[in-house]
Amino acid sequence: MRKFLSVVMALVMVVGMAFAATSCSSKGYDFDKETELVMVTNAAFPPYESKSGDEFVGIDIDIAKEIAKRLGKTLRIEDVDFNSIITGIETGKYDMALAGMTVTEERKKSVSFSDSYATGIQVMIVRSDSQYQSIDDFFNYDEEGNPVSLKNTDIKIGVQQTTTGDIYSSADVTGWGFNDLNEDESIKTDRVTRYKTGADAVEALKTGKVDVVIIDNEPAKSFVASNTDGSGNSPIRILETEYTNEDYAIAVNKNSTVLLEKINQVLKEMKEDGTLDRIISTYIKAE
What we know:
Elements: H1 2-27, E1 36-41, E2 50-52, E3 55-57, H2 59-71, E4 74-79, H3 85-90, E5 96-97, H4 105-108, E6 112-113, E7 118-127, E8 139-141, E9 147-150, E10 157-160, H5 164-169, E11 180-181, E12 187-189, E13 192-195, H6 198-206, E14 212-216, H7 217-226, E15 236-238, E16 244-248, E17 251-252, H8 257-272, H9 275-283
Parallel strand pairs: 1-4, 1-5, 10-13, 10-14
Antiparallel strand pairs: 2-3, 5-17, 6-17, 7-14, 7-15, 7-16, 8-9, 11-12
């Protein structure tokens, strides 16, 4: 009897915890009552977000500050691992996420996205002495130009965990990824190594642990620049051909409908009055 009661109590606790989590995720942001707006990011993705001393800087930081200002809210910024962001938004721990985050169908199952505020380009970084010159050096194609196999099945890819670089490169070869998948789409051959930050992936590239790093174009340029010596030489370079294009947007809890509406209105105003362009051009200079 005592054992049975213990099991029942354990089940009650589990159900209670699940209910609490559901309640948290269903609450959303009370725009009329809340005075603080909590932004979550991963501050290791320059020029979108990084830290200068104790200060957060970057495109997403400035956009968030402007949004909070126009909405009459006090902004607080939380820095977490990238793979914790969606869960934090979904459970209501954070109010909005700006983290160079790409809109994907999988993420839309958990959170709602604002209108896009920037376009990102995924690129490939290789060592300067690498044999690879373009994306065509990685794949064999059929007559219609679709990838059918890898030219080098021993290739090692480095990414920041749970980013779109991770998602895209972890797909099957026929979907422009680098992995072999089973029929249930589970990974059969995993050629992708996932790192906590993009900087960690780049360090792995420099030391030969991976052959390619797939990451957003602007951070890629920052990593190359930071590794360039006084003579203009760098041990790494970016391939000229793009890996893929994507749209960046702000993620909010699915029940934060008023907040989402307000954010979209502010983004619209920022686009129309030139504020968004000014913020982006501060960090990304026209070629």
